[in-house]
Write a structure and sequence with these properties.
Elements lengths: L3 E6 L5 H9 L17 E7 L2 E7 L11 H13 L3 E7 L6 H13 L3 E6 L22 E2 L8 H9 L18 E6 L5 H9 L17 E7 L2 E7 L12 H16 L2 E7 L6 H12 L3 E7 L6 H14 L8 E3 L11 H12 L5 H14 L11 E9 L4 E7 L6 H14 L8 E6 L14 H24 L5
Helix pairs in contact: 10-11
Amino acid sequence: MKPVVVLVGRPNVGKSTLFNALTRTREALVWDEPGVTRDRQYGDGRVGDRPYFVVDTGGLGATDDRLRDYVTGQTRAALFEADAVVFVVDYTEGLAPLDRDIADELRRLGRPVTVAVNKCEGREGAGAVAEFHALGLGAPQPISAVHGMGIAALMDQVLAPLPRTEPEPEPAEGGTPRIAVVGRPNVGKSTLVNSLLGEERVVVADFPGTTRDSIRIPFERGDRSYVLIDTAGVRRRGRVDEVLEKFSVAKTLQAVAEANVVILVLDAQQEISEQDASLAGFVLEQGRALVVAVNKWDGLDESQRDWVKRELDRKLMFLSFAKPHFTSALRGTGVAALLPAVDRAFASARVSMPTPRLTRLLQQAVQATPPPLVRGRRPKLKFAHQGGRNPPRVVIHGNQVGAISDSYRRYLANVFLRSFKLEGTPVWIEFVQGENPYDRERPKVRTPRQVRTERRDRRIKKKAEARGARRRPAGD
């Protein structure tokens, strides 16, 4: 196993910025406000030929009283599995009393600790960090996470006492499903993530807005590996006022675009809203495989459950390819069926469609229901082949295909979905117009008389040019 390096410190000292610098990503949300990071975030780092896991934490001494115990618990859980700790402090604020308290706790932990003095732009050297020797945790390292200063030297010091590990084989391309859990605020996304993992992995509270960042969580179930992404709740654009929340929503939409499979969480005890349909439409536009989880199902009676099912069919009819799963994340009811559904959706999104079978299915579909007439003529669909995966894309060649309606496009997509027994993935249909031989410019055919006339005109033109040259004065 690669060593685990955990970043801790007071809020707003630059842990998330350092995390992004170490992983060379922008996965951690960075904001000039304390308490933005609440859950622990994992990433991959490397120094030379030495790989390692790096863990961003919400820190110790969180400012939000409602979540202080949750965030502190997340940080201590990360420290429990750490092989080494990077204690991040702020040069511009100096040595704070809370830094001393954290240092005392880390000293009792019994793990190698390195003090990283952040925000030391242009202040390299031992004199810049002399104040932080008082923590008693060895020689502090001056760094600037924003500018990348001193980070390589920091990680050399962090990894020096740790044993070297054999490099792990690279995973097969696309072999590990990335699963984004999305939905409106307070529908139970984080509770569902914890239920899938079987542990209190992310912060859960009984008020909306608990999750601000997109938290990536690698885990294994049986012989399969997954990456689960817990995301911030998405509200209607007109209700998003805070700039920080806008960034959180942007991170959620980015997680959808990068995922292989999306679990859309709906609240069965609330009406299916326009925002639910809008978010589902965005997932469909991105072509992601989809699993629908209708949460909080245990609190409904039979008549209410029938009403919810009717609402699903009415308001989310464009998701007919995704079978809904009725769950209670809090009690674990129905949650066990989600990962098998994810596996089926992931496999369906990457299915191979042979050209002969696609063409044969296309011909059968056209014979059963021909495309509507266009200006008195019926479009002719000739053959089909696969144009891509994730989602499956079917390219259909024919004549007059530009006027084929969206309803007929959906009909063909449903034919391919049923025939290949695909579940949880849309099928995109793309039409390609064949060449019309009558649109080409025909070569001109000249009669013998036209040929003689052209020759005569050329002779007359040459004679006229010769007479003009003889009459021209010598000085011209």
